[in-house]
Specification:
The protein has 436 residues and is an alpha/beta fold. The protein is built from 17 helices and 14 strands.
Length: 436
Amino acid sequence: MKITMIGTGYVGLVTGTCFAEFGHHVTCIDKIEDKISRLKEGKIPIYEPGLDTLVAKNVGEGRLKFTTSLDDAIPEAEAVFIAVGTPSSRRGDGYADLTYIYAAAKEIAHYLQDYTIIVDKSTVPVGTARQVARIISEENPKADFDVASNPEFLREGAAISDFMRPDRVVIGVESERSEQVLREVYKPLFLRDTPIVSTSIETAELTKYAANAFLAVKISFINEIAAVCEAIGADVSALAKGIGMDGRIGNKFLHPGPGYGGSCFPKDTLALMRIVQEHGESVRIVEAAVEVNAAQKARMVKKIRDMLGGSEVGKTVAVLGLTFKPETDDMREAPAATILPALLEKGARIKAHDPKGMEEAKKYLPDGIEYVENGYQACDGADAVILMTEWNQYRALDLEKIKKIMKEPVFIDLRNVYDPATMKKLGFRYTGVGRK
């Protein structure tokens, strides 16, 4: 099939590349000329494990190409996926900004010729697909098209495997013709017995928000339980294992930490709250999860301050990991972006390392942070080390070496990577999240 992808951000680039790997002929379009030029040179604008190899392979085999021109790709496309950004509104009210979605729909309309299915791949509020259909019809009354919703469920750091081996594919359609096209797009997954959930457009749009909200609730729940564990002397790691073995609960997203971040959970929970409020309803559990997440980051600042003796003034703090999770360079809503400015403001000196995220971190963190080449350089002369993101290379640190080069052996493990008893035996003053 001939597929066009509008937008070469995280979702668009991964989705377009994986469709090409399926055997489809994919053209990815972006208005940013420099980005397209770099993609043509094989330079990937984001870090996602394996993506550079897959892009190079499919470009080399002639199934994937990049352009800034809609007239190169829209007229012959059987399916056009819109995968542009939907950031939170600049008004700060939590609404998703649909400017780019609607602009894309307006431009697409003028190039449509034969029957085409227009697919919202971006995360959009309920009703967006209807608005896209209205815009296209107004711009090109003769256009023969359907609009569908096909939300993505990609985890940063594992996006390619998520796409190739998904738990499910959700398609929101309202005609048999559009459903047949989308089933043809995803036909390679049929061989793996991947469930295809075919539903209404509105249901598909809401499914994405509901899924992310549920996961955010789960994270906030375990973080609140972690606080309880600290108060009564229980171990949240053992507790999470104890409840996670229950098949009704499951063990995923039961890892306490400094709070959730990234491009999805913070934005999508707020957007869901606004969608629901517009319809006179509420999602109190989601509202509470958002509040708990903000409070968790503040709790981490207090935890760090307490381990520094009650004050950050004049203290050197080593930070291992800056991105919101491992295997990505994404700093959007990362806990580090809230926690580290608070420490700097109160007089701390920060030396930080991240395997992939330091350049991106400089866009989100204030001046004054010293970025170093490895974790050991960060720890050299430090009064405390904070393990902020659980990259693999931080899971087997030479702890004896770290203790020797630190000014004070204080280890603040915000991801519960290390065993408390072992750390204390090595002579560290240690604290994790939800355990003593």
